[in-house]
Amino acid sequence: MRTLLAAKDANMSQSANVDAQQIDLFNQQAHQWWDPNGQFNALHKLNPLRMAFIQQHQDFPEQKILDVGCGGGILAEAMAQAGAEVTGLDLADDLLQVARLHALDSGVKVNYVLEDVADHAQAHAEHYDLVTCMEMLEHVPDPQAILHACAKAVKPGGWVICSTLNRSNKSLLLAVITAEYVLNLVPRGTHHHDKFIKPSELTQMGRQAGLVMQSTAGMEFNPILKRYRLNDDLSINYLIAFKKV
């Protein structure tokens, strides 16, 4: 496995908006990304909900889509299978290698790129019909800068769709303590409650980036009852759809 320092020196912008410890954690878990019964089981269960929410706002066929923080490619592959032209962007090199290998095995065409989103947006301004940023904003030092880059990359009238975690007592209990330390649904240390973002805060960040909030939805993830669905409860995991003015 390449060290994080080597990957950064070879491929990352020195000003990359990245938490090195989080990148290292995800790289260490890269081999488990596509195991539906492994430590990323939650992502596999939530992906159909993310796809359903996106489809409420944007059709997939022949659309150019940028998936920011694509990880091992669970969402990127699904969107490509639905007919989109997808570019997956991440700074975790080992995860991107897993994504590329899985795409080869599954025969799905996705362009995976190791690049900071700000640099990519600078080179591909107003290029995409849709930009997705799922379960990523709570892992970076400056989520506002990520939204600005997403807004720069999307065409006028295009969509930016994000998902993240609300900074609530309920999310601390269920998304951190229960999910990581009781049920072991995600690797320990994945989430830091102080980095979670309230919907009102994310709406304001979007507004400052020239994005207008159009709709929201909560994502219910109940592994005990095996119930996974979109709802109106934004207290834990939630999705938000912005449109570029």
TrEMBL record:
<dbReference type="InterPro" id="IPR010233">
    <property type="entry name" value="UbiG_MeTrfase"/>
</dbReference>
<dbReference type="GO" id="GO:0102208">
    <property type="term" value="F:2-polyprenyl-6-hydroxyphenol methylase activity"/>
</dbReference>
<comment type="function">
    <text>O-methyltransferase that catalyzes the 2 O-methylation steps in the ubiquinone biosynthetic pathway.</text>
</comment>
<keyword id="KW-0831">Ubiquinone biosynthesis</keyword>
<dbReference type="InterPro" id="IPR029063">
    <property type="entry name" value="SAM-dependent_MTases_sf"/>
</dbReference>
<dbReference type="GO" id="GO:0032259">
    <property type="term" value="P:methylation"/>
</dbReference>
<dbReference type="Pfam" id="PF13489">
    <property type="entry name" value="Methyltransf_23"/>
</dbReference>
<protein>
    <recommendedName>
        <fullName>Ubiquinone biosynthesis O-methyltransferase</fullName>
        <ecNumber>2.1.1.222</ecNumber>
        <ecNumber>2.1.1.64</ecNumber>
    </recommendedName>
</protein>
<comment type="pathway">
    <text>Cofactor biosynthesis; ubiquinone biosynthesis.</text>
</comment>
<keyword id="KW-0489">Methyltransferase</keyword>
<dbReference type="GO" id="GO:0061542">
    <property type="term" value="F:3-demethylubiquinol 3-O-methyltransferase activity"/>
</dbReference>
<keyword id="KW-0830">Ubiquinone</keyword>
<feature type="binding site">
    <location>
        <position position="134"/>
    </location>
    <ligand>
        <name>S-adenosyl-L-methionine</name>
    </ligand>
</feature>
<comment type="similarity">
    <text>Belongs to the methyltransferase superfamily. UbiG/COQ3 family.</text>
</comment>
<feature type="binding site">
    <location>
        <position position="69"/>
    </location>
    <ligand>
        <name>S-adenosyl-L-methionine</name>
    </ligand>
</feature>
<dbReference type="GO" id="GO:0010420">
    <property type="term" value="F:polyprenyldihydroxybenzoate methyltransferase activity"/>
</dbReference>
<feature type="binding site">
    <location>
        <position position="50"/>
    </location>
    <ligand>
        <name>S-adenosyl-L-methionine</name>
    </ligand>
</feature>
<keyword id="KW-0808">Transferase</keyword>
<keyword id="KW-0949">S-adenosyl-L-methionine</keyword>
<feature type="binding site">
    <location>
        <position position="90"/>
    </location>
    <ligand>
        <name>S-adenosyl-L-methionine</name>
    </ligand>
</feature>
